[in-house]
Amino acid sequence: MKSFLKNVLANIVAIVLLCVVFFFFFIIILVVSSTSGDKSVVVKNNSVLTINLKTNIIDSPTEERTGLFNMDKKNKNVLIYEALEAIDKAKTDDKIRGISIEVDNLNAGITQIDDLRSALEDFKKSGKFVYAYGNTVSQASYYLGSVADKYYLNPAGMIELKGLATEVAFFKDFADKYGIGIQVIRHGKFKSAVEPFIRNDISPENREQLSTLLNDIWRNTSSKIAVSRKMDTAQFRTVVDSLYGMIPELGLKYKLADQLIQKGEYDQIIKSKLHLKEDDKLNKVSLAKYIDSYSDDEKSGDKVAVLYASGSINSGDEYNEIYSEKYIKYIKDLQENDKVKAVVFRINSPGGSANASDEILFELQQLKKKKPLIVSFGDYAASGGYYIAMAADKIYSEPNTLTGSIGVFGVIPYFKELANKNGVRSDIVATNANSQYFSTLHGVSPYGVNMITRSVEGTYKRFVHFVTQNRKQTFEQIDQIGGGRVWSGVRAKQIGLVDDLGTLKDAIRFAAQKAGLKSYDVTSYPKKMSTFEQIFQNLNGEDIEARVVKSKIGKANYEILQQITSEKLQSEVKMQMPYQIKIN
Length: 584
Prior knowledge:
CATH superfamily of one domain: 2-enoyl-CoA Hydratase, Chain A, domain 1
CATH architecture of one domain: Alpha-Beta Complex
Oligomer: single chain
Protein name: Protease-4
Subcellular location: Membrane
Structural class: alpha/beta
Enzyme class: hydrolase
EC number: 3.4.21.-
């Protein structure tokens, strides 16, 4: 019997050791495989810079998701700033003869596509060609590709050119049906983030702001497509309303495409442009590889630092998205770094925690006392995302940025009816009058509602106070354009919420000018995590679970689910934009 137990124990130990060895061997293989692709890239003569499906354009280093549970090595993440610099460099690079756009589904935000499109327009001034090819082309991809000198479409392809629309889901009847109570407290009639919980239809205020937003964005994007494709406004509207892009022959007839050809024929056209023979190899270099081909070594001179803030704003010390403790460290590092002469704060956030936003704003105010602080808006700079911009010397917005949303809300779900229907009840024993002002089974007490309302109102007044200081307007003026309303960048400029319309590169140039720099390097914060760090970060069980759920129900629905289920979110006053807009 002893011998048997010894054998069993030995086998268990051997299995455990084998698992440990296998795990660490697996980690080593991952690290080696992730670094093996970092070999220097040599760009050959007569090359074509290619923007293809293997490129994901991201706004911030924190948007990168790689590691143990993100094994897709096919797609390469490229920062928008790096992409713009690469296109600018290619303009004068004798080895690059032209650019080929080959994307059906572009993974990039609307302002990023705007910037890429502008960079390509500038590239064309060099006299080099820009061609585009598509199969089943999304509206976002066509918006970028339409900038090309020639647009080629697969004979069996299509272009999904349809305009913009949004659909708002409502959960009030669902909550009532299953006995879920939702207490909502908000300031701002346009603060529609809470509408799905308290209404069964869209409010007039929300319909008004959504209609204005969508029309602002579509007017800007559609006019650029129409100009590039040499169509007048009326003709272009007919093409979009009629969905002519869905039929390749109609797409050709109505000038959305120049020719219907196969991909192999498209490559032959480029070869002919380069004076290559039919059997010669076509040298294509992806945007990501082109960036890798030239040195990005850190120099020791003066620097303009770009601090990227992308995602929702939260309390805590995590890497992805905007966590207050982490960003306070970044800001203090920048404040103490003597080589950094100016800071550009790049915001791409719909907001989040009011408390975390306030912490970040305070540290930025301290940074501003020591060196210039310029803010650049990406796709979103709304609610808390706008709040943290209020330390800026100057604010740049993109024309299609969603910004403003100066408002505050709290969502408090409770399950009294649901519990009672299923035989669950509770009694409360407490030491003070409001020890249990909120319970998931009993809801919020009347006095609790009163105090939370005062908290929301106080937070709103504090929000508007900082906006009045930065924008040099009165409380009444800001309150009139606040109320939770979201504006496009164009309108935000008109009503004084931002200083100028411009790109991240414009903000960097102004920051250098304000710091008196004639020559400088651009450095990014936060630094990219190493593969090894990302692997261990991704071992977090809650993070894995969240990513699985998010992938199944979508990011927007996941954020609504969090508001109901997350204790952390329930306990915070929120400064958050109600929705996101994507040109699909």
